[in-house]
């Protein structure tokens, strides 16, 4: 039995591990440095891109874009633009704005039709 299973803070489902309660994640996040969090976000974003084709419905483009934006990976114009446009119907204008800034910073030309 692994230490993760013994800790009772996680539940193991096959190859997936989930936190037993969201506060465990919040507590752990406060104990990790920002550089390490950037590296972890980059690792997760890279794995999502490799495991599932980007066009697949299995990957949430907004979540992938936010992970990519906050990671140590170089900005990817396509990922960030796709995430920006996927966030528009969600009406979360703060996320749309963040992703649009990241996408244009990566060289995207995001035209807004009024």
Commentary on this structure:
The protein is mostly helical and 114 residues long. It has a domain at 34-105. The protein has 6 helices and 2 strands. It has a two-stranded antiparallel ribbon with strand order 1-2. A hairpin with a 2-residue loop joins β1 (10-13) and β2 (16-19). α3 (34-51) packs antiparallel against α4, α4 (61-69) crosses α5 and α5 (77-87) packs antiparallel against α6. The termini are far apart. The model has no long low-confidence stretch (mean pLDDT 77).
Q: What is this structure, in a nutshell?
A:
With 114 residues, the protein is mainly α.
Helix content bin: 55-70%
Q: What composes the largest sheet?
A: 2 strands, antiparallel
Strand order of the largest sheet: 1-2
User: What class do helices, strands and sheet pairing give?
Assistant: mainly alpha
Total count of helical runs of at least 4 residues: 6
Number of strands: 2
Distance between the termini: 58 Å
Topology order in helix (H) and strand (E) letters: HEEHHHHH
Give average pLDDT, whole number. Answer: 77
Q: Low-confidence segments, ≥5 residues, pLDDT <50?
A: none
Shape: globular
Keywords:
114 residues, mainly alpha, two-stranded antiparallel sheet, 6 helices, 57% helix, globular
Task: Show the helix and strand layout.
Blueprint: H1 3-6, E1 10-13, E2 16-19, H2 22-31, H3 34-51, H4 61-69, H5 77-87, H6 93-105
Antiparallel strand pairs: 1-2
Helix pairs in contact: 3-4, 4-5, 5-6
